[in-house]
Each structure stands twice: as structure tokens, then as C-alpha cells.
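Figure S4 source data
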Amino acid sequence: MHIRKIELEGFHNHKKTTLELPEKGLVVVTGDNGSGKSSLVEAVSWAIWGKTLRGTQPGGEEKTPCRAALATDDFLVNRSRKNGKSSLKWRPSDAEKTDWSTTTEAKNALVSLTGDHSLWTKARVFSSHDAAHFTLATDKERKQLLEDVLGLDKFDPALQSCRVDLNALRAVQLKLERELDILSERHVGAIKRLGDAKLSLGDATEGDSYEKLEEKCSAFAKMLEEVTEEYTTARAVISGLERTLQERESDIQVNQSRLSVLSMDSCPMCFQKVESNHKESIEGEFLKTTETKMENVVALEAKRVELLRDMVGLEEEYHDTRDSYSKLSAELAVEKRQVGKLRHLERAKESAEQTISDCEDEIESTQAELGQLLHEKSILENCERILGMKGIRAQTISRALSGLEAAANGWLSVLGGGLGVTLSDHTVTGAGKTVSTLSLGIANAGGGNGYKGASGGERRRVDVAMMLGLSAVADASLNRGGGTLFFDEVFDALDDDGVTGVVDVLNQLATDRAVVLVTHSDLLVSALKRTAALNVRLSDGELS
């Protein structure tokens, strides 16, 4: 991002300031403390991203009206604040006008063009306050800083999404494996039940006489019914004969009683004398009737005796038939139980066979689903390794470290002092464990004690070299050319040798870009007078 012009109005102590920067070359900004030198850098930050480097309000008070505008090779931007409300307007350099429906839409579109604010501050803005940010950081913080500069945080959403998908697949995998275990147990149980059913079927054979027994038992039941009916009929006939015999015998007794009365000479009722001729007529009639009844009784008795003899045979036949029927019924019941057992075993066998078939189908389907899941899981695990700290990040950081080390040592050779840095992407702990980190080693500084033992000038040389190296790495990672650089009092602590080196560094940087140097060092200003493209003096926000 090459900045061509910076405009400030009501921004900190700038009433109205316009600074036009050359296409390339060194711009030296001097002035007393509080004169508004650093506000030039703050204006760039606020105009594009809506926030200052130090987190302060750009106009002092929140409701103080202020404005900051930039002109770059790629776009024009104007951000203002009035009555506590911010307004952002911007357009590409080759467009006359661009309307954004909301401030948020305009902001997002601008950031997509300029990149992240933190990356800009690390790659394009170097201040005395942040000069030792990399060198004083812990190994872990250095690694995170390098990842930010390289834009590796772009992998975080993909890595997070990958891990979410992996966790979901692992949960489904556990579910499918549990289902397979259950299906396998059911399959084994069904095979055992099938074996038991086949074994029982081999031991228990179905009787061939079941149907015959059933037919024979049915026939005997019919015979028993017929014999019972015949026996019952015979008993009824005998009962009727016996009643008739009783009636005939009773009539005979009545006649005999009447004959005994006739043997008397007078009527027992009226005591009148009975004539002999009448008496003989009645006696003859009674005798004839009695004789007929006696004959009838004899005939009935003979028939009864005959029926009784038949009854004995019928009763024997009835008992024999009943006994045979009972025996056949018992045999049939045994056969029926055996048939029921066989039918139950057959159903158990068929059920076991069906269960085995169903389990095998489900096992095959579940195994296929699990196989597909494991394939997807292996892909996601590879993606996790690639996106994680041991994959593409490690390779990218490893390559970037080589570039960063070479760039930093190149700038150190220009800055002088005989210093050198070494960078490593791993550290071996006291326990012998290799830990992924980013360690910094400094040669020829502080009598062998590294950065902690180094002098202020040595430290600042290392700080500047590392900042410039990070800037080069950021440019390479973004595949962009050099943009406008800002140095805010970074070199003010250097000695004469350091100043000489800085002059060479700044002049090299300014060959293809604008380099804005804010400084209090008269020595540095004097050394740069001959090569500076622009010398700017600020006093109470007034530029000269």
C-alpha cells in the first residue's frame, strides 16, 4: 500500500494538515514532543481501520469533530467523526464514486483490500515502543507473531471446522462400532439357537401314526356315541317294559281282589245278596281278563329278560369302546404334544435363520457405512495434520525462518556491530523432549550472554533487523511489493556507528518506496539531510 497523501483535520493537535509523500524516497519528520509527529501514522491507522495504534480517541474527546483522509495508489479513503458518530467513505482510485449501503459494508470491503490491521502494524509500522516486541517475546509468542505475519491464522477456521467434523465422525464411529458389537452378539446368539433347534429336531421325530391315531380316535368316538345311544335306547325300552309289567301285575292283583270279593254272598258295599248267575258271569269275565293279562305279563317278562341279556352285551361293548377311546385319546394327546414340540422347534429354527440373515445384512450394511466413515475420517485426520502445527504451518514457518534469519542478518551487516542472529523452530527441554517453538539466538552480543547481556545500541540493532526481516517476510507471504514504511523514533537510541548503518538501511529501503522517519535525533537528521527527499518540521500541528 503506497500512500501518496495524508490529510488531518481536528485530529489530535492538527487543525488542518496535508502531507504529500513522494513515490519513493526518505521523508524525515522532526519536531518537539507533542507536536503531532506520531499523529501522521495514527491518521493512517484510523482512516482505514477506524482505530489508532495506541487505542486513543483521534480527536482527544469522543465527540470532538475530526477527519483523516488518505490517497494511495489503489484507493481514496475519508473517515470523519461528528457528534460521536463515525462516517467512512472510500472508493478505488480508478472509480469516480462507490456507494455502500452501510458503514459496515464499506468497512469490510476496504479491509478485504488493505488486509488486517495487526499485520499492517507489524509489517509497515516500526515504533520505539514496539521495537523489541519480537526479541523480548517468549518463544511461544514469537511463533504466534510469525504465524500472524505469515497469515497462518487463515488456516484456523478450516482447522476448527476439520476438528468439528472429526469429532462428529468419531461419535458416529463409536455408535456404528457399538451397533456392530450388538449385531455380532445377536448373530452369534442366533447361530447357537439354530444349532440347538436342529439338534432338538434330530432327537425329536414326529410320529407317523398321528393322523391314523386321530382318524381311529375319531372313529371310536363315533362308535362310542352310537353304542351309548343304543345302550341308552335299550335302557329306556327296558324301563318302559318294567313299567308296563308293573301295571299288568297291578291289574292282576286288582282282579284277584275283585274275585275274592265275589266269593262272598253279599255285596260289601250295599250288603245285598249277589245272584249266583250274575256272580258266575262276572267271575268268568274277571278270570278271562286276568288270564289275558297274565299271558301278557309272561310275554313282557320274556322280552325284558331278552333285553337284559342284550344290555349285558351292549354294556360290555360300551365299556370296551370307552376304554379303547380313552387309550387312543391318551396316545393322541402324547402325539399332539410331540407334534406341538416339533412345530415349536421348526418355528425356532426359522426364526433363528431369519435373524441370522437379517443380522448378516445389517452387519454388511453397517460395515460398509463404517468403511466409508473411516475413509472420510482418514482424509480429515490428514487434513488436520496438514492444517495443524506439524503440517503446512511447520513447513511454512520453517521456510519463513530461513528467510527471516537471512533478512535479519543482512540488515545487521548493514547496521554494523558484528552481530548475528539464529532462529530455530524447535527447542530441546531439559528432559530431552523436543518442543515446537521459535527460539532466538544472538551471536557476538553481550559478551556471549545474548540479548540480555547486550548494550542498548546492540539491542536496538537486533530489534530493527528483526522488524525489517518480519516486514520482508510479510511482503513475501502477501506476494506484494514494498509499501510505505513508518519508523517512529526507532533509531534515536543508536550511537554514531549505529547511525551510519541506519542511514544506509533507510536509503536502501527508500529506493523503491516512501519511508517516513519520525525522529528526535539531530545526529540522524544531519546524516540524512543530503539523501532525504523531504524534510518535515511539525510544531503544534503546523507543518513546514
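Figure S5 source data
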Amino acid sequence: RMLKELLSTVLAKYKRYIWLVVAFQAVQSIAGLYLPTVNADIIDNGVIKNDVPYIWQMGGIMLAVTLVQITFSVGAVYYGSKVAMGFGRDVRRSLFHQVNDFSSREVAQFGAPSLITRITNDVQQVQMLVLMTCTLLLAAPFTTIGGVFPAMHQDLGLSRILVVAMPVLAVTLAVIIMSMVPTFRLMQERIDRINVILREQLTGIRVLRAFVREPEETERFRQANQAVTETALRGGRLQSLMFPTATLFINISSVAVVWFGSDRIAEGVMQPGAMIAFLTYLTQILMSVMMATWMAALLPRASVSAERIQEVLHTPSSVVISASAITELSRTAELNFNDVGFHYPGAEEPVLKDINFTVRAGQTMAVIGSTGSGKTTLVNLVTRLFDATAGSVVLDGVDVRDLAPEALWSRVGIVPQKPYLFSGTIASNLQYGKDDATEEEMWEALRVAQAEDFVRAMPGGLNAVIAQGGTNVSGGQRQRLAIARALIRHPEIYLFDDSFSALDLTTDAQLRAALKPLAQNAVVLVVAQRVSTIRDADQILVLEDGECVGLGTHDELIATCPTYQEIVDSQAAVNGDES
């Protein structure tokens, strides 16, 4: 059902090309059926007619028919390829846009490796089915139906062999195909698994080397790879039965035609040319049945892939865009959390409970707490990577769920907890924050982010090459470039999710001092681990197990919040030991 639904898009969009493929396949198949009749005309009582002009005439007809077959076969393959490639392009595009619309919840639900496999390997499997259908399968009905009647016309008695051979061959191959379905479903799951392991090993290569875990990870990959190999071999063995089985039926049927046909020739009720023509028709018919069933061998894996593709396409994002979304905000920047709570699906306890605070333009709100207290989740609620499951997050008097995504994101500059740089140059990464940023704006953002000095020292300056993920720069440099990318757009709300942790204390202080004049009319929300980073904030929110246990200035919390006092004392003790 899923495959049928997916392929219906092909019929709707590429109807014109498909009709051309059908027409070309019909012409080339029917032209091929004309050749046995020509062969039969040349043979008279078992010998080729000794008539040179007649032979030249029939030979010319055969060449003309063959030329027609080649021409229309090439046309069928050409337009069939356009249909298949266009289909693959459209499905990949739909999947890409669907995944981009997913919230973090859906991405975590499927997993990044599985989504990669679905967009690449699964689409390829269905695309191959479409291509083979257009180039091979569509010719089979014309050859089968068109061949049965001429074969019956040659000799009705021998046609009983067709009545037996065709259904037996089809049923036998169908049984083999049905056995392949669970194997190919398991195959795609194990490809997902090998992608998970490979992605983990590439991402965590430093950890593997630091803890000397290469042998264990090599064995882990070997087991996953062996599982894929065993499943592929199992499916290959089943698939390898198809051609020998089909060939066996064709040969048995051919022997039966010669066996019974020779008796009919001896009785004088059939000519040798007619028997040869019938044998050729039989071979073409059974070959077309074989090709159709071989095509069906692609069906199990394509069906599994179609299910996986449709599962992604039919999964709605938990972050729903309002039908009457607001596209413009007129008020000065202000951020409110009103009794906000968040609960992950399947979790026993909420991550955030009853969070209330207000941050106005020109103010800085800091969030601090132990690991797992919900700090990053709180930041993600502002940008709608998740939607609050209780209460509301309000920006400029409007619930963020009622805002158009572009209206929200254009007002927010975020530096995530794990800063990510894209492959390209420093300039291209900064232009993610502002497409039309000038060199002066880039250098100004780098100056505020305390990144100007090391960028000028790099070969090429703004055109210095950045590897995927920013792996060719240090953690502190990567973090400062990510900060500059957020600063360059001059948003109304700055979100810093533990963005100063890789900076030394001096650089941290210099960056915060340079940021103050830039953000004097903006809301600043800072998540931090170090008290020194946030002690000058207008408000500090202290989280513990997802609950607000303190809200106030540094001095107020020192006097009233035991949790904050513990954090300050522990960091003071560590700094004292280090000194």
C-alpha cells in the first residue's frame, strides 16, 4: 500500500512520459513478435526456400523490424530514465524538506543515521524499481498477450503447453519472492545500524583514541558489517534461484514443444516452420514472464524502502505552524516565560516545571544549574526546537507558537551548546548569520567575539578554509566564530547556551565587555556554568531538577538561595586550589 501510494506521485507528475514509454514498449514488443512469422515464411518443409529475391525481401523486412525495435527500445529507456530520475529527485527533495521541518523530537525519534539511509539508500531502491518497470516490465504484457494469439494460430494443440508452463512458472517465482520480503526488511534495518556505528566512530574519533578503544570499535563494526553481509547473502541466495528456475521451465517447455511438435509434423498436421515459430513465441512469452517476475524480485526491498520513506513523510512535526501565523512584531524586544513546563515523550518526570520570568530589552538573564537541570531545553523552547507542553513562551507579547517561523528566527541569534561550523570559509560561515554581510561587518563581529586576531593570522583571513564541523580550528576558536555568526545579524534576542565554557577567564571578560554596547537594546539570555560569567547579569535563574529554586541578582541569591551558594562555594574552592 505504501509503495502504491508513493508511486502514484509518479503517475500524476510524469503521466506524459509514462504514456510515451508504454507506446514505445508496445511498438518494440509487437515488432519483435513479427520476426517469428518472417522466419516461418522463409522455412518450407524444413529447408530454407531457394529463392534469392524472396530471401533478400524477408531479410530486409527482418532488418527493418530490428531497426524499429532498437529505435523504440532506446526511446523507452530514455523516457523511462527521465521518469525514474525525476521521481528520485522529487522524493529526496520532499524528504529533505520534511526532515528540515522536524523538531528535535522527531529527529531523535528516527535518529540521524536512519534519516540519512532513508534519503539515500531507500530512495535509490524505489527509484531502481521505477526504472526497471519502465524499461523491462511494461514490455512484458505486450509480449505475453501479443505472443499467445500468434502461437495459438500456429498450432492450437501445442498451446496447451503454454497453459501449463506460464502459471506454474509465475507461481514458483512468486513463492521465492515472498520469501525475500522479511530478508530485505531486515537488510535495511542492519544498514541503519552500520550507519549508526560508523557515524559514532567518526564523530567520536578523539575519544576512541584517547581511551585506546580502536580494537573494541573495530570488532563492533565487524559484527555489524558481518550481519549486513549475512543478510545480503541470504537475500542473494533466494534471488539467485529465480534465473535457474525460469531457465529450467523454459528448457522443459522447449523440449515439450519439440517432442510433441515432431509427432505432429510426422502426422502432417504441422509444418516445421510453424513449429520453429511456435517455439520462438513460447521462448519470448516465458522470457517475458520471467522478466516480469524478476522485476517483482525488486518489489520486496522497494516495498520495505517505501514504507520507511512514507513513515518519514507522514510523520508531522510536533512544532506546528499556526494557520494564521503572525509575521510582524511591533513591540520592543521582551521575553516572557509564563508557567512553562516541558515533558519529553515517555519520560516519567518533566524536564521543566512552572518556569516564570521576564526579560526586557537591554537586560541580561542568566541561567545556571547542575548538569541535566533543563538549561538547554529552556533555550530550545525560545527557538521552538521544541514546544512547551505547559504554559507559554511569549515574545513581544505574542506566544511563539502563534508566530511565523521566519518572524521568530529572524529576531533571534543563537549560539548552541555545541558550536557547529559548516565546510567552506570563515566568511561563508558568518554569512549564515547575515547573507549580505560586508567585510566591515564581519570584522566587527569577529572583533566583538574576540576572534579578530586569530582570523587575521590564518592564511586567507576571512577566506580561510573551514573543515566540516570546524575540526581544523580549536574548540575556543570554533566557539568564538559561532558567537560572531550570531552577533553579525544584530538580533533582538541573543541566546548563549553555555557558549563561553571554552574561553579562558580573560577572553570571557573581554567578550562580555565588548558585547554590552552591541546588545544594549536587545534581550540577552545566557546559560553558563561559571559564576564569573553571569555575576553581573540583571537576573539569574537557578535551576535544580527542572524547577526554579532561585531568581534574582548575584547578591540576592548569595543571601537567599542555598543551591546558588553551593555553586559559588564549590567554584571558589576549585579556583582557590588551582591558585
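The first strand starts at residue 43 and ends at 44. The first helix runs from residue 2 to 13.
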